[in-house]
Design brief:
homodimer; mainly alpha; Ribonuclease iii, N-terminal Endonuclease Domain, Chain A; Double Stranded RNA Binding Domain; about 10% strand
């Protein structure tokens, strides 16, 4: 209770219906044993509110960028690791009621918190939270990895990375691509799967960067 | 021009900025050659508006359902095939300006149209469009497939389907699962990949249903 009050101060929002905040801070492992509500429904809602808000805000703030850039930038802002770190910063790790697993993913709790604010106060308050705690930080879109590994590979090996589609899965309208990235003649490669070739390439690029011990920028560390 | 006017009538919304509607009905293949704007940015925005609206509406209309049900139901409403059929019904196939590919996916144009309405008239008009043309139809959540194939398999073979995780890909926080579904002792199986085991199981169930020539319910025909 005391902890939840402090959380309200930290986020600058006071709940009319305090039980919404309690539910948002209740993991299913805790709720299940006690037969009370957990945060999952609020997380479902908060995820939608978050994606919408980020999409609208970056659409407006980047009138000259194409949809690829916008998609990548949105991915970076709704990224699990990024949200998990925000959850940590807000102290949700100490507030969340759970039993069982020690390493709870706090990104879900952040989304549940957004969902709770949306229900309790309406869209504007949820938007304010997202602007203040999520969009306020300038981050780079995910796709930078492909450009970055190219630069790094040219610098170290004087060779560019080669991407190859290894497999395609799934029905025509919902294909998945498995891609392998190699640096020709070097013993370094990476394989990843993505909903688009670009997504899979991005993932392999990130793995290569790690293998070369090159620090990957926020929020994908 | 005449066609676009008729589209306005059909959807019951008149654009203040008519060029937004024109852009929403311009495929990249057409735009590219002429160096004009295509619908992709609007599609990015419309996709976010659509997902948000569907999530909020079904969250409210199904207070007793858990997040799995909500996720599956949302997937069914934002499903590409479902939106493609709506695009067809609205006559977008004849309106969309494109050159090159014959089988244009109209789901993207529907999303672009939603994005255009959102920009032109604000959220309420976009929401009205979504309620009128997308949420008005009662559809079943995707997960029914698993229950359906079970019923069908019991009826035909007197055996239940067995699902097996064949592979796991990706980093711990973004795992992908490859699952194979079999009916023991029968020469029928299906393999699919999903972000969750449930999603992969659902996909294999759908494939099995097709193989058994069992009609899969809307909107996943």
């Amino acid at each position: 209770m005391q902890k939840l009050k402090k959380l309200e101060e930290r986020i600058g929002y006071r709940f009319k219906d305090f039980s919404l905040l309690e539910t948002a801070m209740t993991h299913s492992s805790y709720a299940h044993e006690r037969n009370i509500q957990s945060y999952e429904r609020l997380e479902f809602l908060g995820d939608a509110v978050l994606n919408f808000t980020v999409a609208v805000e970056i659409f407006r703030s980047h009138p000259d960028k194409d949809e690829h850039f916008l998609t990548d930038l949105k991915s970076a802002y709704v990224n699990r690791n990024y949200l998990h770190r925000l959850g940590k910063k807000l102290g949700l790790g100490e507030i969340l009621r759970h039993s069982g697993p020690k390493n709870i993913r706090l990104d879900q709790a952040v989304e549940a918190l957004i969902g709770a604010i949306y229900i309790d106060g309406g869209y504007l308050y949820a938007k304010n939270f997202i602007k203040k705690f999520i969009l306020s930080k300038e981050i780079k879109p995910l796709k930078d990895y492909k450009g970055l590994i190219k630069t790094v590979s040219m610098k170290i090996f004087n060779k560019d990375v080669v991407y190859k589609v290894e497999k395609e899965f799934g029905p025509p309208h919902k294909k998945m691509f498995q891609i392998t990235a190699k640096i020709p003649g070097e013993k370094i490669s990476a394989t990843a799967i993505g909903k688009t070739k670009r997504e899979a390439e991005m993932k392999t690029s990130k793995i290569l960067l790690r293998k070369l011990r090159y620090p990957t920028p926020n929020p994908q560390t």
